[in-house]
Write a structure and sequence with these properties.
The structure is a single chain. By secondary structure, this protein is an alpha+beta fold. The chain has helices at residues 23-30, 63-78, 98-115, and strands at residues 2-14, 39-51, 81-82, 119-126, 132-135. The protein binds the ligand Nc1nc2c(c(=O)[nH]1)N=C([C@H](O)[C@H](O)COP(=O)(O)OP(=O)(O)OP(=O)(O)O)CN2. It comes from Neolewinella marina. One of its GO terms (molecular function) is 6-carboxytetrahydropterin synthase activity. It is an enzyme of class 4 (lyase). Pathway: Purine metabolism; 7-cyano-7-deazaguanine biosynthesis.
């Protein structure tokens, strides 16, 4: 099995805070990420697809096609946005953490990548140089 990864980047603002909680509790649980006046990250996204390379092209999937899908479904929506306010991914009250972003990104990519003839294997998202999350879909790592 072969794995192909495409990198894309975006930047966005957010805060981590439970609306119903007082500021001091949010500060205790989420630290500086609960700052009521927001903070931003330069996100670094790695989307991996898997399969066997086509015998003629040698591609598991054309990386340009993958890039187009990731840009249309994720980057164009999130780049320069406020993740709490500008998009509807977290309107249900879930926090825009790195983990929750990876599963949302998966939902937005899986079908489009399948329609292009490939299979989504992993969504990896770096929030900072020191923090990243991996998501392998609802069933976990194959
Ligand atoms: N499990 C998670 N923990 C944390 C997340 C997350 O998404 N999932 N996010 C945050 C904050 O968003 C925070 O802004 C992270 O930034 P920072 O503390 O600057 O990150 P670093 O750890 O890379 O910086 P250090 O200087 O090394 O502390 C927090 N936790």
């Amino acid at each position: 099995m072969h794995y192909l990864t495409r990198r894309e980047t975006f930047n966005a603002a957010h805060k981590l805070a439970v609306e119903e909680w007082p500021d001091d509790r949010n500060k205790e649980v989420f630290g500086k990420c609960a700052n009521r006046n927001w903070h931003g990250h330069n996100y670094d996204l790695r989307v991996t697809v898997c399969g066997e390379p086509d015998p003629i092209t040698g591609f598991v999937m054309d990386a340009k096609v993958l890039s187009g899908i990731v840009k249309a479904e994720v980057v164009d929506q999130l780049d320069h946005s406020n993740l709490n306010l500008d998009i509807d991914w977290f309107k249900d009250g879930r926090q825009p953490t790195t983990e929750n972003l990876t599963s949302e990104i998966w939902k937005h990519l899986e079908e489009k990548i399948a329609a292009a003839g490939s299979r989504l294997y992993r969504v990896r998202l770096y929030e900072t140089e020191n923090i990243y999350a991996d998501y392998y879909g609802p069933a976990g790592r194959p």
